[in-house]
Design a protein that fits this description.
The structure is a homodimer. By secondary structure, chain A is an alpha/beta fold. The first copy, chain A, folds into 2 domains: 169 residues, Rossmann fold (3-Layer(aba) Sandwich); 208 residues, Up-down Bundle (Dehydroquinate synthase-like, alpha domain), CATH 1.20.1090.10. Helices cover 48% and strands 13% of the residues of chain A. Chain A is built from 15 helices and 8 strands. In chain A, the strands form 2 sheets. Chain A has a 6-stranded parallel beta sheet with strand order 1-8-5-4-2-3, sandwiched between helices. In chain A, strand 6 and strand 7 form a beta hairpin. The radius of gyration of chain A is 20 Å and the shape is globular. The model of chain A has no long low-confidence stretch (mean pLDDT 95). Chains A, B: GO terms for molecular function: alcohol dehydrogenase (NADP+) activity; butanol dehydrogenase (NAD+) activity; metal ion binding; methylglyoxal reductase (NADPH) (acetol producing) activity. Chains A, B: This is NADH-dependent alcohol dehydrogenase. Chains A, B: Pfam families: ADH_Fe_C, Fe-ADH. Chains A, B: Keywords: Oxidoreductase. Chains A, B: It comes from Propionigenium maris DSM 9537.
Chain lengths: 391, 391
């Protein structure tokens, strides 16, 4: 039951928190401003950031166009620029995709000699990385304060995650106001993503008979319930600062590593399965998780109902009466009902995937690992059955 | 409702976590081993630490004898040694007193030119400090992972706290096994201290109508209830690893700054009042808090019952029926009952103070601040009334 914990990112949370950025820039000479499709130009944040950079007298270079499901090839291109320009701080302005890309660029730029995709497939510790700072514009992944990143290699149809403590962002500017212009669909995906990250940790293989594990599970239950409560309110009032603030806070708590203290190992099979879906079909991560998670639950509940049952009772308020399996199944049904209520997809078809190519997604799901998950360990035949159940 | 958050200490929690220390030592040339009255020599930890230092090939110097309620004069003496010996890491092996002293020594050693007690009385930011690492031997204060410290100046009969982000410990070795030999009285004081730290943050002036504040208050309630539950079990079985582990975890969560994220400002008047008591009478901090906190509650409940009432209902399970004031008072009564149950002191007399010298403790309480507390702001006449009520 031991754990190590390190949350080194300096968090500045709240309206106007960008005022802290100038102080954070003082140790750097050359900044790369990394961003996505340009929404920050439409909502004025781009101008605000440029103003701070100029005000601080910083030399900077821009790299825009980071894709949702950030591409490996963009990471390669951006790191060439970093090296050529002598960048020593990557300032990621965006959501999880831009921030994930920034971390990968930061690591790759100090290790240009290695085959970086080989690193993703054969994870190992590398010393050193360019510093990363983040300005969050979409609440979802918690990437703004953790050291993980996920990249998509479209050519190989693989999507893999990796982590390195050297890419913990040095600072995170988290102003809920910056997320007000996020459209409904992305906001919904962000809500699902937040719930999914919390659920992955909820499905730790650790027993809740241990009092500290139980305490963590209770905390996760509370965070999920709060996220689920604010979801429809936010989707009905996208411009509401308080709802945006709540969601940003839960997303941050969901994957900042703090929960993971005691609950060291979550399940994460649903993430592996979702990464396969989005590697092949390039759908949004949150949308993929909405499809995958209930199907994963349908499958594992037969083998190991206990945590699903706990979820049913403590999160979805199913009456604790009858067989564990029946209670657990009712919990999954209510989870689907919630996802339907916020108009999240439940099947590949809902995301426009009419013919799920099982062989392709199976390749992607097992591109690196031979077993997925920890609550229940899933082999190829199990994951195949889960994909089949989605058809 | 904005907040900044930074928890940079690398935490290694659990049995055998000292194995991580060698890696943490690699950047340092000269270590000061700082400890207290020598209990670490009796329980074998001293030998273990020396072995790691020698195994890592580190040059080191020892400074033992740090007092409970660490003395200003010890800080001055230890920093002379640090400067003379070129120490670049202070390794604090002990409880909150030794760790607090280490932080003060770390800061003072880089600022030998200033009057350090003047800094304590007129807090300001200072750049730079020697690095600090901690090996915790007593669960209580959370000092192992935060940047605060409290010093006692016996000559002036003052006890003041200060904080500086440069003295966040770089690492914390938190092995509950090391606390097994802590005697019953110190263990009990540690339990009271943990509860008191949580309560100080519980009595934030922020309204629980805000959903994120409410979430934090709920978390504090859970941590207090868990601490109160494990308290008597631990006191009845001091050698039990699981109970020691629970307490160490709650104490860490109680004051690592994480809770303080949203609940930025607690109350802390009881701490101010306790510091006055222990400045004059040199009693243990936990014992002082046990005396002060219920008396503080008796006083503030008349002016502002709401949070005391919430405490009564949510922590002490008082039935939510009748007037707020009556419910709140019943909560205070149950808190006293709990303290009595674990044989913690309730009056100065219980700690051997037969004649409380009100003028002396009043001087100490207002040595720096002219108002104490945030839930209710206490002026001199209020604090005098609280001291009078203890007689």
């Amino acid at each position: 039951m031991n754990f190590n914990l390190n949350l080194p990112t300096r968090v500045y949370f709240g309206q106007g928190s960008i005022k802290n950025m100038e102080g954070e820039l003082k140790d750097y000479r050359k900044v790369m401003l990394l961003y996505g499709g340009g929404s920050i130009k439409r909502n004025g944040l781009y101008d605000e950031v440029i103003e701070v950079l100029k005000g601080a007298g910083k030399d900077f270079v821009e790299f825009g166009g980071i894709e949702p499901n950030p591409r490996y090839r963009s990471v390669l291109a951006a790191s060439e620029v970093c090296v050529a320009e002598g960048v020593d701080l990557i300032l990621a302005v965006g959501g999880g995709s831009v921030i994930d890309a920034a971390k990968a660029v930061a690591l790759r730029s100090r290790h240009m000699e290695i085959d970086f995709w080989d690193l993703m497939r054969n994870p190992r510790y590398l010393e050193g990385a360019i510093s990363v700072g983040t300005i969050l514009t979409l609440a979802a992944t918690g990437s703004e304060t953790n050291c993980g990143f996920v990249l998509t290699n479209l050519k190989r149809e693989e999507k893999l995650g990796h982590g390195n403590p050297n890419v913990y962002p040095k600072f995170a500017i988290m102003d809920p106001g910056y997320t007000k212009s996020v459209p409904r669909s992305h906001t919904r995906n962000g809500i699902v993503d937040t719930i999914a990250h919390l659920l992955e940790q909820y499905f730790t293989p650790l027993s809740d008979q241990d009092v500290l594990t139980d305490l963590m599970l209770e905390r996760i239950e509370r965070l999920i319930k709060n996220t689920m409560a604010v979801g429809p309110k936010l989707l009905g009032d996208l411009n509401n600062y308080s709802y945006r603030e709540e969601h940003m806070y839960y997303a941050y708590m969901g994957l900042n590593g703090e929960i993971a203290g005691k609950v060291k190992r979550g399940d994460w099979a649903s993430h592996g399965i979702e990464h396969a879906l989005s590697a092949v079909y390039d759908i949004a991560h949150g949308a993929g998780l909405s499809i995958v998670f209930p199907h994963w639950m349908d499958y594992v509940v037969e083998r190991k109902p206990e945590r699903v049952k706990r979820m049913a009772v403590n999160i979805f308020e199913v009456e604790d009466k009858g067989s564990d399996l029946a209670i657990a199944r009712e919990g999954i049904e209510r989870f689907r009902k919630y996802l339907r209520r916020i108009e999240a997809p439940l099947t590949p078809r809902d995301e426009g995937i009419d013919q799920l190519d099982i062989d392709k997604v199976m390749h992607a799901a097992f591109a690196r690992d031979s077993v997925l998950g920890h609550y229940v360990k899933l082999e190829e035949k199990d994951v195949r059955a889960i994909f089949e159940s989605m058809k």
